[in-house]
Each structure stands twice: as structure tokens, then as C-alpha cells.
Design a protein that fits this description.
By secondary structure, this protein is α/β, with parallel strands linked by helices. It has 41 helices and 59 strands. Helix 12 packs across helix 13, helix 16 packs parallel to helix 17 and helix 33 crosses helix 34.
Length: 1506
């Protein structure tokens, strides 16, 4: 252990310089001095002996700091007799750090897009950031996670790290003229390219421009075209809206884009382009067509080759020694014969001894307590406790004396002590689980001290509060004054031998549940004897104990075995170690202790604090027991500790690592040579071999190795073997890693109350390959992974609790922690606090790493550290990290002794309550078992399709509503051909019949219109248009009105004078900037020559605020219709033919395209006729309408149907619902409307706002709409597969109501345009007399028009002219019959074709992904998804604190992977209300996409998943 071959052998430094350097390293590693201060002091120290190190290789003197071993470990000591240079330098414990640094140097800082974060989120510092620093640890126990002995500061692979974002270098050709078309939210009319801005990323002069547009790589499939060199990306932009910076990059479809977002996405694509792992070939079938790849074993993976191991037997327990018959007999013996002998000394936080408990006092106080427990506690004259009852011991870590009295008092009274931690708050990490344990053990009484009881949280009554999940407890304070003295003749009955339970130790398992391990009296005694023999304990020796005395080694050595041997224990409280980490060494020195019981953390801390302490000596120690000697980082602690303290009398052979587990108690311990132990050994193992469970002493790849030290031999009287981790416990081969099992009388006996897992763990029967049991006696599984090395020494390489199985390889959480810490612990991670665990996503373990960052760490630091950790782990463990999260200092849940509570951390991660301040997800690199991308099959020809459907007995998917001809006399249809005629006829025949009632938010009627009133108002408008506006028949007029009767009157006014009305939603006064340009665009695109409006809106259009958005001079004539004179028109215009244009219906599609549809008079009246027949409308009916009146069905119901059918319409503007949610439903009930129309958004507002108050609303006319459940995975392949309700991946679809009279529907293939069979997914095509005649757009793209309005099938019925709806759906015959006795054809709409996302060759509907995401966390208010260069972007509205934003990143990524087998590329977290929603309540995902790419969303956080 002492000498190592090392490069600095030539230059031995003087001892004081060495010590000085070691101290400096430690100061730096704890963050006590800055890097600068370190360099300065170090230079000073070395200056004294510079001539000495002239021989050093000059590269080592560079600014880079000395790589490899730190000076403190590298300088050889004076030669000792042990073999010196026989070991090569790999055996240094800091080899791991070098490996990490070398691995990092290999990667030339790979560029990754840095997440962008809103400034306010950065201020996220924890409340406790400035509380005194806490201890560190990642493992459940409190072991420090610094790689302690590695005292070098690691070499930085680049002194100056290049900035994370590629700055876009602007070429000299950048043109400064930019077109000023603004990108209207209303619709994306492509801007005319006036200047192409080219951002040249370091283009070489002779590059061929043809090469400059590589297709974006398809990162979703991994099928990347091999590119011979990284080509620079040239950005071409079609025109830059005002107000954008000219720093612009390419986009996929000419959307102008600010460079920040796109350049990050480009970087993301570049990072993802590098193929990560070899593609996998094999699959297993998951149900039917979604095939998840299953990782096949690598044919070259290492396999164990050794012989089957033999069971290893420890030395026999010494027979000749006069052991006391029981532990209590020993206590009684010492307590009565040597009452003055010191038993336990307790220290306070200043290091003063507060109290020394003698054996006499321990005996008398324990008796007193036993007597009190058995005789003085009664309820209803019954003794409260019976022998064998369990009692909770609640004592702080600072009070070992009271604990010891309580423990032995319980044993004397034949009660079973259950020591637990002191609950500090009502919601401690894991406290609920402890409560569950107490409940299952039937604990009703808790023992505690006066001081502790005072500090517990209290209820209002002054009683101790009930903790969450705890059973009701009585609390007994056991300080002397509360106990009764037993009579002289009283003796406890305690016969503590045999299989009865002595005590129960709690253990928190991997999943966070707490179990109680029962230890019998027999085991307890056997453990004390075995430890006495193994450690060579003798009477009256002194032991210093830093460990928790309530459990584990602290209890076994410091409370139990010590009493058997009349030892003196000096207990050093955790609080004292925090204040003075050297305290344990000082106590060893002042008490001349022979044994010390510590953890690696304590050795590490004392190294950091040993400066200036010249007067300590460790020469009295014969054993320094390292309780967590099985941890991967303990070896470096031991080495470093020896290096520094050898000069203070510490002998190398004194260091004795041991391995233990709650189930098996002590498993193995290294014996000093004087007790006959073999010399210590180390093994340098290949990490790759270990991941396959095989031991390979590392040969060539120095980088990924694990150096482990032995933990000595098996305990006396025990047998041990190593068995396979999963399945039948077969013995392992000699070169195979497995779970260590122990058979001995000194192990635990059961998990209290849990028979099933007890059998599995405490009664394992290992078998040979042939299946023969290796022993009569059962073995106990220890939960430790390891192997038996030379000299029968036990080596431990990990714990079952920290095992993560990724694919087919096994990784140990502790090893990953060690690698992360070696990256640059002192600069970044707060007190070395890192937690590593795995979560299951898409049927495999995924590695998650959570670290606390220092309070002063900058964004840049964080991101740099994260990317370096990813690279290091990838290099050394060859495993990808799925998620890396950083949280503010002091915010991870703590285990009782300050370590990190791993299972609670995992729980918070999965629930989204971890509140990280930085997150990096790498699903693209980790998830290698996605289903194969779907390859499109060659299409089947038309003929074979028809034949196929006939053979399969499938009918063509076609359905129709009732025939119009049978339903009414065609005479009336002719009369009602023109709506203007209908209104005049009604004004003449039923002048006072009310047509409209308009309600305001309070539910009061604000305006009404009868037939004659509407007719007269329409005449006035027509007169004004002809006289003031001087308009001619056929001119287009824009109607910009709020919802109301004025709008309807203006519409008929236009018809009366032959103008073509276009209804336009008025601009929003609070949001003119975005809404006014849309109004202007519709006015321009519809070629309106005049705008009709109210006075208020006219003023708004001409206001100063409006002028900033739209130039006032560009508006056509604006007429306000509020006070127009009462005038009649000479003659009302009559259209020459029914095919003349009646009105234009403009709407913005959800994909952000503005389209106007031309409606002829014939189509208008046909539409009214169908609605009238379907809804059975006639003059005596009242209907309620809560829809916007500007386009589509809403417009038809407001402006057309009442006039056509003569019914009365109660008009409820949807906007009024914002101030009065119940308005629409109360109108329905007040006016007893049998028919009401509303949109989904209205229904949603009502159900959210009114909750349970609403009764049921009846559905459509005709059969009740049916709901079917379809398999979402089949839909992705354009197939419909019906499943049972509640089956996995099922999606409920509700039928779209009854098909209107006169309407025919067919389902057509989206690409071949052929008819499809029943239950096939395709586009819904419609044929009816009221189909619109076409699009009305500026450019009149004829092809588009023909395609949408006059489509014909490619085969089958090729004559009928259909309109394509743009919706995907399917038809299905139901069992129900309709009125005519025919079976009812149900039409199901799945979603809009324009919106579907094509990913991995499959078709996804955004709404399905969004539904999954909204369910992922309660703070997600709304979600929208879109794709960008093959990346799936998920935008989430956060309803909660900005600090919680980052919780959502992992949850969103997980749910989309689990439910849709898709990897999310970018997660954008925004404020509520950012996702644009149009008037019909539909999300406008394309607008959102443009806003995101143009960097206009002001997101809270943008995470780029790697």
C-alpha cells in the first residue's frame, strides 16, 4: 500500500512540503479556497524546492496542474521492507480519476445545445442554502461520496472551454435589406423573398454551393446517410418580419427564424447524427404490430470460464474460551463484580465528556427500567406490556447512554426493542414507512429522553403529534426521576437464550419500503462471540465509535460486543464530527484507544482537517475498522489516510475494512496479521467484465477499471458462497460475480411479519450445477455482490440495492457516483452529494443521476459539468445516462445521518416534486429498444382492392343521410332558394314573429329582432351601402361586428343590395398587435371594397394604438351602421341564378392557413334545409346557440337558419361565458330549448366551471351516439382495431352524430384516392347539395381548389364529385337500426389530416400525445405538440411556480416514450395561455411552432433532449 511506481520518483519533496500540498488539495476539494488561491499557495510551496523537481517532465509543470497522482500520494516514502515496485502504477486508488480525465480528454468537448431558461428561474436558491453545511453521501448510509483519497484536483482537459453555443458567424455577404412583411398570426401567407440572409458557418471559399443543403438527418430512425464530412449549414430565409434581428438561420419551410432556437436545434441534430450504438436486429412481438427491440447478448461478451466455486468455511468458533452463557449474564457479572469499570463515555459537541456510564450504573438503571416497564405501566388494571411485545426506542444520536439503558432494560424485561430515528418534522423523508413498520410490529409504546420528548413536534393538546402513517403511541420518558426503584428481592425473569427475538433493526430497501429484521437471542450471542474472536477484543480495551450506535456495526461493536468484553466505548456524536472532523483521532490519542470504528467518510473528513495538528498519534491503534469497506470509494480513503497518518504512528496493517449487511450482520472483516490474517490485496477489475458479471483482471484498457480492496475473511463459525443473482441460487464460477450468501448462527432470522420474502432471503439453499444442495443448513442472502479472491479473501464490488440492469449489462450505482465525482468534485458538486438510481421506462432500467450543485455555480458551469459527466460515464461504464438533474444545495431528502435518502429522491423524481434547477435528458442515446420504424408497403392496385374487399366480405365504407326528395315538396324548396326572399316573405306573413333574442353576461335580453324589424334594418344597411358606399352588386363587403343582431342585419343588408358579405371577428382592444393584422388580412384577401361596423369598432380601427399595427390609410371605406337614416331601397336585388356567390366563409385552419370558402345561394339553402330536417326546426321551436357567428356552423345558425326555418334563436355569445360560466346552460333551461348548439370549448368551460351541478344533456336526434375503443397503436399504421374498454393503448372515439339528410360520405385512401373497406382509416369525403363551390383566395391556386372541392375516386364510382374534408376517420355498421329500419352507419372522426405527425414512418395524432402529456403532472394546464426537422417538440403550459418547471421535463419524456414509443426532442415550458387557440377552441399548433422558432414564446425553460 505504501509505495507506488510513479513518475515523480526522481524528486522526493521534503515532508513538510508534502503535508502542505496535501492540505492545500484538501482545502480546495472542500471548496475552502478558490482555484486561484490554490495555485498561488501551491506555487509558493513548490518554489522552495523547485531545483528538486527539475527532472520532471516539462508537460507536468504546465498550467494544467499535475495529472495523475497528486503530489501527496506520489512521493515515495523511505523504502520499507515490503515489496516495492512489484506492483505497477495501476494499483493507485486514484487511477479512477485519471481514467475519467483521460476519457474526457478523448472527447473534444462535444457541442450540445444548452437549455435556455428564463432569468427569474435562475434565482432558484434553496431556503437552506446558507444553513451550515451538511454531510455528504449518496448511499443510504452516511458514507461520504467524495473519492476521498484521490486528492489530486483533476486535470482539466481544456483550460478554456469553448462557449457552448456555436455562435453564428455572419458572412460578409449578409444583406441588410430585409423585407418588412409581418408574419400575421392570422395566417401564414408566404412572405416574398426579398433577401436571402446566409449565415455562413466557416464556409471554405471553394465549397460547391450545391452541397450546402444537406437534408436534415432523420434522427428518429437512426438511418443516417453516411456523410463524409460535416457540411456547414447555410440558412436561407424567405423574408424577415419587422423587429427580428438579422441573425437568422434556415428553417424547414421558409418560416423566418431567429437563430437562437434553430441553432440549438441544429446542434441537437448534429449531436444526434452520430450513430450511438450498433443497431439491434432481434425483436419480440408485443401483442401485434409494435415490435420493441430486445437486446441480444453480444457474441463477444466475456463469459465466466472458471470452475464452480466451493463453499468457503470460516475458522471454527473457539471452544476453550470461557464465554458468558448470555449477554445479560455478562452484563450482570460486570455490573455486580466491577461496578466502577467504565462502560460508555458520551461527548458533547465541544468534545467534552459529559457522562461516563459505569457497568454498575448500566446494570442498576436497566433493572429499574425493566421493573418500571413490567410493573408500573397499566391500563384498566391490565399490564400494558407482555413479554415479547415490541417497544420503539427513539433516541437522538447524541445520547448513547440513555439508548444503552433503554436497550438493556428492554432485554431484561423480555421486550423487543425497535430502535428508530427521532422524527424531526411531521414529513421526514421515509417517516411514513417507519410508521408502517411500527404499525406492523404492533408497537404501542415509545421510550425516549426528556430532552428529546421536548423537541418532538407537538399537537395543540401538548401531546406529541401523530406522525404521518404512524400508529398511536404512548411516550415514556426514561430519565431517572420517572422510573420506579425495584424492591430488593425483585429479579428479572429474562432467559435470553434460544430462538426468541432479541431486537428488530430497521432497514430501508431499494423501493423505499422499511422492513424490520429480527435478530434472535441466539444470533445476538453468536455475533458477539464471532466479533470478539475476529477482532481479538480483550477485557477493558477502549474503542472509539463514530458510527450510529442504534444499528449495524455501531450497535454490534459499540453496544453489544463491548458489554460482553467489559470494554470502554467512547461514543463520538455526529454533531461533534461536523464541528470537528478530527475529534475521533484526538479521542483515540487521548484515550489511547486500541480500536476505532469509522466509515470512509470520517477518514476523509479528518484528512481535510488535520492541518496544524502536530500532537496526535495513532500508535495505540491495533485495529481501525472501516465499516463501509465494501464501498468503491473506501479504498481511496484508506490509502490517502494511511499516506498522511503513517507519519503519526498509524501502521498500515491496522486498517481493517469489513463488509456487513442488515440481514447477515457482519459478513467478513480483515484481520490484522497478529490475528493470523493474510496480507491485504487489491484487484483492478475491468468495468466491462463486471457489467457482464465476470471478473477480468484488467489488461489493456486502463480507462474503465474498478479498483477494489478485500474485506478480509469470512467470520468465525460461518460458511459463505457466491450464487447467481437471479433465478435459482446456483453456485457461481470462481471468476463470476454473484450475491454473497452466508450460513451461520450469527445472522438475522426474518423480516418481521413478511413470510414470503423472508423465505427467499433467510432460507436460501444454494445448489450446484447438478442441482444438489450444498449444505443442510439454509443460507442468508447478504445483498452484497462480490466474489472470493486468492487467500479466501472476500471482495465486494457492489450492492444489490444499487444494481441497475440496463439492457443485459449490470452497473452499480455507487460506481457511477464515483465516476461522476471524479469529474471535478470540488468545483461543482455540493459536498459530494450525488444520488444515482434507475427508473423503468419502456421495459428497461434507465440511469438517473441527481446532484446538488454549489450555491454559487453558474448556468455555464452546470451545463459543462453535466456534459462532462455524461461523457465520463459513457466512456468508463459504456452506459448512457437517461436523465441528469441538478438541484440546489441542501434540497435532496436526507437519510437520518445526513446521507441522501435514495428511494425518497427517486420517488420525488417520478412524482415531479424534485424541483431541479437544471435538467439534461438523453433519451435519444439511451433508448435503443424502440420499435422498428415502419417501412411503407407497396400499395395494392385498385382492382385487387375491390376483389380483396369482396373476398373478405367487407363492404366499401360508404354511408348516407336520408334522401331529401322524399322529405318535402320540392315546391317549397324552390320558394326558399334565396334567403333574401325568405326574409321578405316572413316579414310580410308573420311580421311580429320573434326570430332573435341576444343575452348578455347577466342573462338579461339586450336586443331582439322580429321578422319585420330585421327586414327593415337590412333595408337601411342596403340603402347606406348603395348611397354612401356607392357599391355595385357583386362587390365584397367585410362585416366587422361583435356577436349580435347588428351583424345579422348587416348580412341581410348585403344580400338585399347584391353585395357579397364576409363576416370577420373584430380585433381585440387589449391585443391589437396580433388581432388587427388578421382582420386586415381577411379584408385584403377577400378583396372587400368596404368595411361595415359599429361606431366603437370604427373608432378602434382608426385609433393611435391601431396605427402601430396597421397603417390607417390602407383600409377601404369604413361605414358605421349605428345611426344610418331610415330609408327603403327602391328594389331588392334578386340573383340571376342560384349558383351565384351568396357569401364568403373565412376561417383560419389549425395549421395556421387562412382559407375562404365560396358559398352559392343554392348551397346556402341546401345547407339550411338539411339542418332544418335533421334538427326538426319549425317556427314554434326555440333553440339556444352558444357559438361564434363568424364562420362554419356557428355562422349558419346565427345568420341563416332562423330566417330559413322561422324558429326563434336565443343567442349566447361564447365570450360572455368568461364572466358567467352558467349563462349558456341557464338559457337552455329558462327558454326550455329542446335543441342547443355549442362547441367543445364551451362544454369544457361549463364542465370545469360548474363541475357536478349540471344534469345530463341529451345527445343528437336518432340513435344515441355509440362509443368504440380503438387501439392507438394500430391507428399509427392507418388501421382500425377495436378493443375492449380499458385495455392498454385504447382510445375512446364517439360517433359524430347522424349524417345530415342529402349527404353521402365515403372513406378514401389518403394517397391513392381509392375507396376503402369498412373499418379502414382514411380521409372522409362528402358529397351533398350544400357543398361549397371552392376556395376563394388571392392566388386562386386552381390545383388546390380542384383537389378539395371536386375530387373524384380513382376507381369504383368515379362519377360523383366529392369534397375532401381533410379529416381522417372510418365508418362502421352498428347493431343499432335507424328510423327506416336500416342498420345505422356510424361515422367516427379520428383527427385532421393536416395536423398528423409523420414520425418513424407512422402517423400520430397530436391530440393523443397531448392527452398523455396532460395526465403526466398536475401542473400541466395545456399541451401542444408539433414536429421540427424530425424532432418532436412538446410545448407545455405550466400552472404553478416557475421553480417547478423542470420537474415536467422528465415526466413528459417518460410518458411519451411509454405510451407512444416516441422520443421527445425538445420540451418547452411556457406560461398559461401561450398556446394559441382559435375561436373554435382548436389549438393552432403551426402558429405555436412559428412563435417557438422565432423565439417569441418567452419560455420558462427549453430542454433539448440529447
Amino acid at each position: 500500500m505504501a509505495d507506488r511506481g510513479c513518475p515523480l520518483e526522481a524528486a522526493p519533496l521534503p515532508a513538510e512540503v508534502r503535508e502542505g500540498l496535501a492540505e492545500l488539495e484538501l482545502e480546495l476539494s472542500e471548496g475552502d479556497i478558490t482555484q486561484k488561491g490554490y495555485e498561488k499557495k501551491r506555487a509558493k510551496l513548490l518554489a522552495r524546492c523547485i531545483p528538486l523537481i527539475q527532472g520532471v517532465d516539462p508537460c507536468l509543470q504546465a498550467e494544467n496542474r499535475i495529472p495523475g497522482p497528486s503530489l501527496s500520494t506520489a512521493i515515495p516514502k523511505p523504502q520499507r521492507s515490503r515489496l516495492t515496485n512489484s506492483r505497477d502504477e495501476r494499483f493507485r486508488s486514484d487511477v479512477h480519476t485519471e481514467a475519467v480525465q483521460a476519457a474526457l480528454a478523448k472527447y473534444k468537448e462535444r457541442k450540445m445545445p444548452m437549455p435556455s431558461k428564463r432569468r427569474s428561474v435562475l434565482v432558484h436558491s434553496s431556503v437552506e442554502t446558507y444553513t451550515p453545511p451538511d454531510t455528504s453521501s449518496a448511499s443510504e448510509d452516511e458514507g461520504s461520496l467524495r473519492r476521498p483519497g484521490r486528492l489530486t484536483t483533476p486535470l482539466q482537459s481544456h483550460p478554456s472551454v469553448e462557449p457552448w453555443l456555436d455562435r453564428v458567424i455572419q458572412g460578409s455577404s449578409t444583406s441588410s435589406s430585409a423585407s418588412s412583411t409581418s408574419s400575421h398570426p392570422g395566417g401564414r401567407l408566404a412572405a416574398v423573398p426579398s433577401a436571402t440572409t446566409t449565415a455562413l458557418a466557416g464556409l471554405s471559399a471553394h465549397a460547391h454551393l450545391a452541397d450546402l443543403h444537406p437534408a436534415p438527418p432523420d434522427v428518429t430512425t437512426g438511418l443516417v446517410e453516411p456523410s463524409h464530412y460535416e457540411r456547414p449549414q447555410v440558412a436561407s430565409v424567405r423574408g424577415i418580419p419587422r423587429g427580428y434581428s438579422r441573425n437568422i438561420l434556415e428553417t424547414a419551410d421558409g418560416v423566418p427564424v431567429n437563430s437562437r432556437v434553430s441553432s440549438k436545434i441544429q446542434q441537437l441534430l448534429n449531436t444526434l447524427k452520430r450513430p450511438k450504438r450498433p443497431p439491434l436486429k432481434e425483436f419480440f412481438v408485443d401483442d401485434f404490430e409494435e415490435l420493441l427491440e430486445v437486446q441480444q447478448p453480444d457474441p463477444n461478451q466475456p463469459k465466466p470460464e472458471g470452475d464452480q466455486m466451493a463453499v468457503l468455511r470460516g475458522e471454527p468458533l473457539a471452544v476453550g474460551t470461557p464465554w458468558p452463557p448470555t449477554l445479560l449474564a455478562a452484563l450482570q457479572h460486570w455490573g455486580t463484580t466491577q461496578p466502577k469499570a467504565p462502560c460508555l463515555t458520551a461527548l458533547d459537541t465541544t468534545g467534552k465528556a459529559t457522562c461516563t456510564l459505569t457497568y454498575g450504573k448500566l446494570w442498576s438503571r436497566s433493572l429499574k427500567l425493566a421493573y418500571t416497564l413490567l410493573n408500573k405501566l397499566t391500563s384498566k388494571n391490565e399490564p400494558l406490556l407482555k413479554p415479547g411485545d415490541r417497544v420503539a426506542l427513539v433516541f437522538p444520536n447524541s445520547d448513547p447512554v440513555m439508548f444503552m439503558v433503554a436497550f438493556y432494560g428492554c432485554l431484561l424485561a423480555e421486550l423487543v426493542p425497535v430502535p428508530i430515528e427521532v422524527p424531526l418534522t411531521r414529513k421526514d423523508a421515509g417517516s411514513q414507512q417507519v410508521g408502517f413498520l411500527l404499525g406492523s410490529c404492533g408497537v404501542t409504546l415509545a421510550l425516549t429522553t426528556d430532552a428529546c420528548q421536548k423537541g418532538l413536534p407537538k399537537a395543540q393538546t401538548g401531546e406529541v403529534a401523530t406522525f404521518k402513517g404512524w400508529p398511536p403511541l404512548s411516550w415514556l420518558v426514561i430519565d431517572g426521576k420517572h422510573l420506579a426503584k425495584p424492591p430488593k428481592d425483585w429479579h428479572p425473569l429474562a432467559q435470553d437464550t434460544g430462538v426468541g427475538t432479541a431486537y428488530i433493526e430497521y432497514k430501508t430497501s431499494k423501493d423505499g419500503s422499511t422492513v424490520g429484521i429480527t435478530v434472535s437471542h441466539e444470533s445476538l450471542l453468536a455475533q458477539c462471540r464471532a466479533l470478539t474472536q475476529a477482532c481479538g477484543y480483550s477485557e477493558a480495551e477502549t474503542l472509539t465509535n463514530v458510527l450510529d450506535f442504534k444499528r449495524d456495526a455501531g450497535l454490534w461493536h459499540g453496544v453489544l460486543t463491548s458489554v460482553m468484553n467489559k470494554m470502554h466505548v467512547v461514543s463520538i456524536p455526529y454533531a461533534l464530527m461536523k464541528v470537528n472532523p478530527l475529534s475521533w483521532i484526538q479521542k483515540v490519542y487521548s484515550y489511547k484507544a486500541q480500536t476505532a470504528l469509522v466509515k470512509s467518510r470520517d477518514m476523509h473528513w479528518s484528512l481535510l482537517a488535520q492541518r496544524g495538528q502536530r500532537d496526535v498519534s495513532l500508535s495505540s491503534l491495533r485495529m481501525l475498522i472501516v465499516a463501509d469497506g465494501a464501498n468503491p470509494w473506501s479504498i481511496s480513503s484508506c490509502d490517502a489516510f494511511l499516506n498522511v497518518f503513517q507519519s503519526r504512528g498509524l501502521r498500515p496493517e491496522v486498517i481493517c475494512p469489513c463488509a456487513s449487511s442488515p440481514e447477515a450482520l457482519t459478513v467478513a472483516i480483515r484481520r490484522p496479521p497478529d490475528l493470523g490474517g493474510p496480507p491485504p490485496r487489491k484487484a483492478v477489475l475491468s468495468m466491462n467484465g463486471l457489467s457482464y458479471g465476470v471478473i477480468r483482471v484488467d489488461t489493456e484498457e486502463k480507462l474503465s477499471v474498478l479498483t477494489v480492496q478485500d474485506v478480509g475473511q469470512v467470520m468465525p463459525g460461518a460458511s459463505a458462497c457466491v450464487v447467481k443473482v437471479e433465478g435459482t441460487p446456483y453456485l457461481c464460477k470462481t471468476d463470476e460475480v454473484g450475491e454473497v450468501c452466508v450460513s451461520s448462527s450469527a445472522t438475522g432470522t426474518a423480516y418481521y411479519g413478511l413470510l414470503g420474502i423472508t423465505k427467499n432471503v433467510f432460507e436460501t439453499i444454494p445448489v450446484t450445477v447438478g442441482g444438489a444442495p450444498v449444505s443442510e443448513r439454509p443460507f442468508t442472502r447478504t445483498g452484497l455482490l462480490g466474489f472470493i479472491g486468492p487467500d479466501n479473501l472476500v471482495f465486494i464490488v457492489g450492492k444489490l440495492d444499487g444494481l441497475m440492469v440496463v439492457g443485459v449489462r449490470r452497473h452499480s450505482a455507487d460506481d457511477v457516483v464515483a465516476t461522476a465525482l471524479a469529474v471535478e468534485p470540488m468545483k461543482f458538486v455540493y459536498r459530494g452529494r450525488i444520488a444515482v438510481f434507475s427508473v423503468t421506462v419502456l421495459r428497461d432500467d434507465r440511469v438517473v443521476l441527481v446532484a446538488e450543485q454549489r450555491p454559487e455555480a453558474s448556468e455555464e458551469d452546470s451545463f459543462q459539468w453535466m456534459s462532462r459527466v455524461l461523457q465520463a460515464i459513457d466512456s468508463i461504464h459504456q452506459v448512457g445516462v437517461y436523465c441528469l438533474a441538478l438541484v440546489p444545495a441542501n434540497t435532496l431528502p436526507k437519510a437520518p445521518l445526513g446521507g441522501i435518502h435514495i428511494s425518497e429522491t427517486k420517488q420525488r423524481f417520478l412524482e415531479g416534486t424534485l424541483h431541479p434547477c437544471n435538467v439534461l435528458m438523453c433519451p435519444h442515446t439511451c433508448v435503443t429498444n424502440l420499435p422498428k420504424p415502419r417501412q411503407k408497403q407497396p400499395e395494392v392496385g385498385p382492382a385487387s382492392m375491390i376483389v380483396g374487399n369482396l373476398v373478405a366480405g367487407k363492404r366499401i365504407a360508404q354511408a348516407s343521410g336520408r334522401e331529401l326528395a322524399h322529405l318535402e315538396d320540392s315546391d317549397q324548396a324552390r320558394k326558399f332558394l334565396f334567403l333574401a326572399d325568405v326574409l321578405q316573405w316572413r316579414a310580410h306573413t308573420t311580421p311580429d314573429h320573434p326570430l332573435f333574442l341576444l343575452l348578455n353576461a347577466k342573462g338579461t335580453v339586450t336586443s331582439t329582432a322580429t321578422c319585420v324589424q330585421l327586414h327593415k334594418r337590412a333595408e337601411r344597411v342596403a340603402a347606406a351601402l348603395m348611397e354612401k358606399g356607392r357599391l355595385d352588386a357583386g362587390d365584397h363587403v367585410a362585416l366587422v361586428y361583435p356577436p349580435g343582431v347588428d351583424l345579422i342585419a348587416a348580412f341581410y343588408g348585403c344580400l338585399y343590395c347584391g353585395c357579397v358579405p364576409v363576416t370577420v371577428r373584430p380585433p381585440h382592444p387589449q391585443n391589437l398587435g396580433t388581432t388587427l393584422p388578421t382582420v386586415k388580412m381577411i379584408v385584403e384577401v377577400s378583396k372587400s371594397v368596404c368595411v361595415l361596423s359599429t361606431q366603437a369598432i370604427t373608432r378602434l380601427l382608426k385609433s393611435k394604438e391601431a396605427a402601430t399595427a396597421v397603417d390607417i390609410r390602407t383600409w377601404p371605406t369604413i361605414l358605421d351602421t349605428d345611426d344610418i337614416p331610415k330609408k327603403k331601397v327602391a328594389s331588392i336585388f334578386r340573383p340571376p341564378s342560384p349558383d351565384v356567390l351568396a357569401y364568403l366563409d373565412f376561417s383560419v385552419s389549425t395549421t395556421g392557413i387562412l382559407a375562404g370558402v365560396k358559398m352559392s345561394h343554392a348551397a346556402t339553402s341546401a345547407l339550411c334545409r338539411s339542418i332544418k330536417l335533421q334538427c326538426e326546426l319549425y317556427p314554434s321551436r326555440q333553440i339556444a346557440i352558444c357559438l361564434d357567428p363568424y364562420c362554419g356552423l356557428g355562422f349558419a345558425l346565427w345568420c341563416l337558419c332562423s330566417v330559413y326555418s322561422g324558429h326563434q334563436s336565443v343567442l349566447v355569445p361564447p365570450l360572455e361565458l368568461e364572466s358567467n360560466v352558467s349563462l349558456w346552460l341557464s338559457a337552455v333551461s329558462q327558454y326550455k330549448a329542446r335543441v342547443t348548439f355549442c362547441s367543445y370549448s364551451v362544454m369544457e368551460m361549463c364542465t370545469k366551471g360548474l363541475g357536478t351541478q349540471t344534469g345530463a344533456l341529451r345527445g343528437t336526434a336518432g340513435p344515441d351516439p355509440t362509443t368504440v375503443y380503438v387501439d392507438m397503436r394500430a391507428l399509427r399504421h392507418d388501421r382500425v382495431r377495436l378493443v375492449e374498454r380499458g385495455s392498454p393503448h385504447s382510445l375512446p372515439l364517439m360517433e359524430s352524430g347522424k349524417i345530415l339528410p342529402g349527404v353521402k360520405v365515403i372513406i378514401a385512401h389518403t394517397e391513392t384516392k381509392g375507396p376503402l373497406g369498412d373499418s379502414h382509416l382514411g380521409e372522409i369525403w362528402v358529397s351533398s347539395p350544400h357543398n361549397a363551390t371552392g376556395y376563394y383566395t388571392v392566388y386562386g391556386e386552381e390545383a388546390l381548389h380542384a383537389d378539395h372541392f371536386s375530387a373524384r375516386l380513382s376507381f369504383g364510382d368515379t362519377q360523383t364529385i366529392w369534397a375532401r374534408t381533410g379529416y381522417l376517420g372510418f365508418l362502421r355498421r352498428t347493431e343499432l337500426t335507424d328510423a327506416s329500419g336500416e342498420r345505422h352507419d356510424a361515422l367516427y372522426v379520428v383527427g385532421s389530416l393536416d395536423e398528423t405527425l409523420e414520425l418513424r414512418g407512422m402517423r400520430y395524432h397530436p391530440i393523443d400525445i397531448e392527452t398523455s402529456v396532460i395526465r403526466a403532472h398536475r401542473s400541466i394546464a395545456e399541451c401542444a405538440v408539433f414536429t421540427w426537422t424530425n424532432l418532436l417538440v412538446v410545448v407545455v403550459e405550466l400552472e404553478g411556480l416557475e421553480q417547478d418547471a423542470l420537474d415536467l421535463v422528465a415526466l413528459v419524456t417518460n410518458v411519451v416514450l411509454e405510451e407512444h414509443y416516441l422520443v421527445v426532442g425538445v420540451v418547452v415550458i411556457v406560461d398559461p395561455g401561450v398556446i394559441p387557440i382559435n375561436s373554435r377552441g382548436e389549438k393552432q399548433r403551426m402558429h405555436l411552432r412559428d412563435g417557438f422558432l422565432a423565439d417569441q414564446l418567452d419560455p420558462i425553460y427549453v430542454a433539448y433532449n440529447m
